[in-house]
Task: inverse folding
């Protein structure tokens, strides 16, 4: 009887401990979401309303990705938090990017003109939060310090200008 109680208590403790444990770090990355304007409504958040301007053509796909605004995560493969995609519309488009919690983040935008899912350096467009300059010296990857921004518990707004080669 004592052994059964100890075994049962041990299993219960493991089960409860599993509930309290934080999710693994990998689960916090690579979540594909849809563009939901309600997540940027008054009283919602944390989130950022991103207006992408200077979109060249109504062809292909616009991809918006959020990153933690850290050296370890910014533009690192597989380190994006949320990703949303939409058919491109020439001019400007708005996206509501929810964020997991208040903190420091960065946004990257890509216009995949031919919709092939690959980056075509000579045709596709790109843009980042805070609109940093892109040049041969940073090879399209400016420092996380130039793209990072703070988000509180509410909704922030920003405009990001698309650039093409």
Result:
């Amino acid at each position: 009887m004592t052994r059964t109680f100890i075994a049962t208590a041990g299993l219960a403790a493991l089960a409860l401990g599993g509930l309290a444990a934080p999710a693994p770090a990998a689960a916090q990355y690579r979540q594909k979401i849809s563009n939901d304007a309600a997540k940027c409504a008054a009283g919602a958040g944390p989130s950022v309303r991103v207006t992408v301007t200077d979109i060249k053509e109504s062809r292909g796909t616009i991809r918006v990705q959020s990153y933690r605004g850290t050296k370890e995560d910014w533009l690192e493969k597989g380190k994006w938090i949320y990703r949303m995609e939409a058919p491109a519309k020439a001019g400007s488009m708005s996206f509501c990017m929810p964020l997991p919690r208040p903190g420091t983040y960065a946004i990257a935008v890509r216009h995949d003109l031919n919709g092939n899912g690959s980056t075509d350096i000579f045709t596709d467009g790109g843009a980042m939060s805070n609109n940093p300059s892109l040049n041969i010296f940073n090879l399209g990857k400016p420092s996380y310090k130039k793209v990072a921004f703070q988000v509180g518990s509410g909704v922030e707004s920003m405009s990001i200008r698309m650039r093409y080669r």
User: Anything to note?
Assistant: The CA atoms of residues 134 and 140 lie 5 Å apart.
